[in-house]
Amino acid sequence: MDNPHGELKVFAGTANQKLARDICKHLGIKLSRSEAERFSEGNTFVRVSENVRGRDVFVVQGISYPVNDNFVELLFWIDAFKRASASQVTAVIPFFSYAKGDKKDEPRVSIRARVCADCIEGAGADRVLTMDLHSPQIQGFFQRPVDHLHAMPVICDYFKKQAIPNLAVASTDVGFGKQAAKFAEMLDAPVVIGNKERPDHSEQAKVWSVIGEVKDRNVLIVDDIIFTGGSIISMVDAIKEKGACDVYAAVSHGVLSPGAAAKIAASPIKELVITDTVEYRFEDLPSNVRVLSVAPLFAEAIRSIHERTSISRLFRQ
Ligand code: R5P
Fold it and tell me: Residue 164 CA to chain centroid, in angstroms?
C-alpha cells in the first residue's frame, strides 16, 4: 500500500550533516539534496535541491553551536519544505539547546524554549523528533506531536558490556536524580545524588554534598548535557573526596564548550561517553572521550513515524 504521506526523504541542515548521513545509511536511502549559505553579514539562505511535492520530509538540524544561526536555519528549512508542498515535515532536532530556558524562575526572564516551540510550529513543522530535552515537559510547549527519544539505552548497553564491578550511578544534581535512578536500575546499581548549586549565570557550578555511598565504589556520573564540564568535574572532586575508586561519566549531548576538553583530559575521569547529537567541535576530543552513535535510534524512529507504526519501544527508559 502506498504511504499516505508519500516517499520518505531525509535532508540535513548544516548542524548535523554526519548524523543525517548515518541515519540515511541505517534507513538504506540516499541523503536528499539541499544547500545552505551564510552570507558575510550573517544572513542565512537555504534551498531544497530536489522535488518534495507530496513527500514525507525529515530535516535533521540540531539547535547547537552556533545556536541562533542553526535555529533560524531550521525555521527556514521548515518553511522551504512547506512552500515546496511537502506533505508532512518533521523537524529532527537531535539537541535542543534552548530547552534549558524552560521556566520563569526569576523575574522578567523569557521562557526561551516556549518561544522556540512557537517559532518551529509557526514555520510549519507538522511534528518534532528530538532527544533528551533538558526537561521532558517541554513537549507540552508544542501543540503538535513530539517524539522524545532517550540516549540512555545506547549508553547503558555500552556500560553493561564494560561490566564495571561494584558500580554506583551518580547525578550531579537533584534535577537529574529521577533519570539517574533509571540508569541505576538498568545497570543494577545504587544511585547517588549530588547537591549542586549555581550562584548565578556565570556557568560556575559547585557540588556541596553527596547523598549516597561511594566509598570503594566505581562511579558512573550521568547527565543530559556537558557544557563547561564544571558540574561533572565538581562531582568527581566531591565523590573522590568520599573515597570513590574509578570514575566514568556519560552524557547525551557532548557540547564541550571551549576549555572543557582540556578539563576532561586533565581530570581523573577514566572515560567520558557522549553521543553524536552535537557535531561542531570547539576543540579536538581528548583520548578519554568516546562518542556513541544514536543514528540507529533516530533511523528507527523516522521509519516508524513514516510507516505509522508504534514508536513507544524506542522510548525504553
Ligand atoms: C544542568 O542542569 C544540566 O543538567 C547540566 O548539569 C549542566 O548544564 C552542565 O553544564 P556544565 O558542564 O557547564 O557544568
Answer: 25
